[in-house]
Amino acid sequence: MGDAGEGLVDSESKIQERMEERQQNREQARKPKSENPELAAKIESLELARKEMTRQLGITTHDARKKQINAALAELDRRIEEMQKQAP
User: Fold this and answer.
1) In angstroms, how far is CA 23 from the centroid of its own chain?
2) What is the pLDDT of residues 22-81, one digit of tens each?
3) In sequence order, what are the residues at sequence separation of 6 or more whose Cβ sits closer than 8 angstroms to the Cβ of residue 47?
4) What Cα–Cα distance (Å) separates residue 76 from each residue in 9, 37, 41, 67?
5) Residues 57, 13 contacting (CB under 8 angstroms)
């Protein structure tokens, strides 16, 4: 009897894995293909840094630190825009 239960668990895990694979495939299909994956990775990295700076700005109370973060955000925006112009 124990073997039947194990088969059911294995079947369910295989179904879950397959569903996850299909979801990843759908997400990749929605993303435009980049001719330059290195440039795309750099842009993504800058966007993640921007999200982190935005998060920090939301929790910072010191005015001098807010000015630093705003300057960093402006620089990140400039770099992202510059790299996006390079992308085909």
Assistant:
1) 15
2) 887 777 666 666 678 899 899 999 999 999 999 999 999 999 999 999 999 999 999 999
3) 80
4) 48, 19, 15, 14
5) no
